[in-house]
Design brief:
It is built from 14 helices and nine strands. By secondary structure, the chain is α/β, with parallel strands linked by helices. It has two domains: 15-201, Rossmann fold (3-Layer(aba) Sandwich); 206-373, Flavodoxin domain (Rossmann fold). The strands form two sheets. The chain has a five-stranded parallel β-sheet, sandwiched between helices. A four-stranded parallel β-sheet has the order 2-1-3-4, sandwiched between helices. Helix 1 packs across helix 6, helix 8 packs across helix 12 and helix 10 (298-306) runs parallel beside helix 11 (328-340). The chain is elongated. The two termini are 42 Å apart.
C-alpha cells in the first residue's frame, strides 16, 4: 500500500520530490491521469522505503492531490518552494504545455537563487515518460535517458509503458528503485531547504489579449441581484463569481481558465457582455448562473444575447445543491433559453466536484467544435514585385541586395 501523502500546509521541513507532467484529457474521461497517479504512488512508496526523513518531512507532491476548489497556482508555488527534487515526466506534450514548462522554470529559478552549484547537483531528475517521434528532439532528453541507459526498452517505450505492462515489471522496479535512490540521496545529503519559488504567472506571463481559449461568465453582479438573493459569492463582475462560496479559493472562471492552461491553451476570462468579439473567433466555455434569469427583463435580454451563439461556445449551467435558495425555476428558464438558442446539449454542474470533474472535457469539446466549425484564416499571397530599371540603377555596382529573411516575411495560419 502506498504511504499517505501529507497535505498539510508547509512546515519548515520540505518535500522529497515534486512530480511534474503534461496534463491531457484521458480517453477514459477521468479527471486525472490514472497512470501518472499510479506512478506517483509507486515512487512515493519506494522513496519512503529508502528514506530516513526528519520529522515532518513529506515524501512527495503531485497536483492530483490538490483539494477541490483550491487556488492551483498558489498551491503549486508553495509545493515548488518545498521540494528538494523536481521530477518532470517528459513526453511530446510536456514541451508544448506552458503550464508544465512553467513549473520547471519556477524550480530552475529557485535553484539559480540558491547558487550556481545547485543547478547540477541532482535536484532536477527528468524521466522519459512517453517516447518522442524521431524528428523531435530536446536537449533536456539526454538527462532523462541517463536513468536507464542500461535498459534498452526504456528509450524505446518510456517509463509509462513499464508502469502499464506486466511484461516490463522487472525493468520498472529497477528504474523506480534507481530514481527513488537519486531523490533520497539528493534530498538527504544535499538539501536545499524550503525557499521561495516564483509563481507560474511570473514565468508564464499574464493572460494574452488574443488568447487560444475564452471563459465567459453569464452571472449577475452585486448590483443586479434580486433583493431576495443572498449576495455571498457575487462581486462587481461576473468573472469574479464564486458559486461555491468559501469552498473555492478562486472564482469559477479562473479555475476553468486554469484547466485550459494546464491543457496547453492560453486563456482569458471575461463577462459575457464583454466577450462577444472573442466568442466569434475563439473556443469558449460559458459559465451560466441561473439567477441571471431573475434580473429585470432577463428573458428578452438573454434570448437576444444567446441567439446565434457559435457551436464552439460550450455552456455549463452552474448550481449548488447546498444552496438553501432554490434556483429550480430559473434553471428551467435558462435551460429553455439555451435550447432555443440552438444548444440542446447543455451540461449542468450541481456541486463543486461535478464542476471540477466536467471542466477538462468541456474545454476539449469546445476546442473540438472550434476545429470543426470555426473560421479558417486564409492569407492571400502577395504579388511578386515587378523588376524596375530605376530600382536596379540604385544598387551600387558589384553588390547584391541581401536575401530576405524568411522569418521576417513568413506567413502562417493559426496553429490548431
Amino acid at each position: 500500500m502506498s504511504p499517505p501523502v501529507d497535505r498539510r500546509p508547509s512546515a519548515a521541513r520540505g518535500t522529497y520530490f515534486f512530480l511534474s507532467y503534461a496534463h491531457s484529457v484521458p480517453p477514459s474521461g477521468d479527471r486525472v491521469d490514472v497512470w501518472v497517479g499510479r506512478f506517483f504512488a509507486d515512487l512515493a512508496e519506494e522513496v519512503a522505503r529508502q528514506a530516513q526523513p526528519t520529522a515532518g518531512m513529506r515524501i512527495g507532491f503531485s497536483d492530483q492531490h490538490i483539494p477541490l476548489g483550491a487556488d492551483w497556482k498558489a498551491a503549486l508555488a508553495e509545493a515548488l518552494g518545498d521540494a528538494e527534487v523536481f521530477v518532470p515526466l517528459y513526453s511530446p506534450g510536456y514541451f508544448s504545455r506552458p503550464w508544465a514548462l512553467g513549473e520547471q522554470e519556477c524550480f530552475r529559478a529557485r535553484l539559480a537563487a540558491a547558487g550556481p552549484d545547485r543547478v547540477t547537483a541532482g535536484h532536477l531528475v527528468p524521466v522519459l515518460w512517453i517516447p518522442f517521434p524521431p524528428w523531435e528532439s530536446h536537449p533536456e532528453m539526454d538527462r532523462a535517458l541517463d536513468l536507464g541507459r542500461d535498459v534498452p526498452e526504456y528509450a524505446e517505450n518510456g517509463l509509462r509503458a513499464f508502469c502499464m505492462l506486466a511484461s516490463y515489471r522487472a525493468q520498472y522496479e529497477l528504474l523506480l528503485s534507481r530514481l527513488a535512490g537519486r531523490i533520497v540521496h539528493t534530498a538527504e545529503r544535499q538539501p536545499l531547504g524550503p525557499s521561495r519559488a516564483p509563481g507560474l504567472d511570473e514565468v508564464v506571463g499574464p493572460e494574452p489579449t488574443d488568447p487560444d481559449f475564452v471563459v465567459a461568465v453569464l452571472a449577475p453582479t452585486t448590483g443586479q441581484l434580486p433583493t431576495d438573493r443572498d449576495p455571498a459569492g457575487y462581486a462587481s463582475s461576473g468573472r469574479l463569481w464564486r458559486p461555491y462560496g468559501h469552498r473555492q479559493e478562486v472564482p469559477a472562471a479562473e479555475y476553468a481558465a486554469g484547466t485550459a492552461q494546464r491543457l496547453g491553451l492560453s486563456a482569458r476570462t471575461a463577462d459575457f457582455g464583454q466577450a462577444a468579439g472573442l466568442l466569434d473567433r475563439r473556443p469558449a466555455v460559458l459559465l451560466v448562473d441561473p439567477w441571471i434569469a431573475a434580473t429585470p427583463n432577463a428573458s428578452h435580454i438573454l434570448a437576444q444575447a444567446l441567439h446565434g451563439l457559435p457551436e464552439w461556445v460550450v455552456p455549463l449551467l452552474v448550481t449548488d445543491d447546498d444552496d438553501t435558495q432554490d434556483a429550480g425555476r430559473w434553471s428551467t428558464e435558462v435551460m429553455e433559453l439555451l435550447h432555443d438558442a440552438g444548444l440542446p446539449q447543455v451540461k449542468r454542474a450541481c456541486n463543486l466536484w461535478e464542476f471540477v470533474d466536467l471542466m477538462p472535457a468541456l474545454v476539449t469539446e469546445a476546442r473540438r467544435q472550434f476545429l470543426r466549425y470555426g473560421p479558417v484564416v486564409s492569407f492571400e499571397p502577395q504579388p511578386e514585385p515587378v523588376p524596375s530599371l530605376r530600382d536596379s540603377a540604385a544598387v551600387a555596382p558589384h553588390t547584391a541586395s541581401p536575401p530576405a529573411d524568411p522569418a521576417s516575411t513568413g506567413r502562417g495560419g493559426e496553429d490548431r
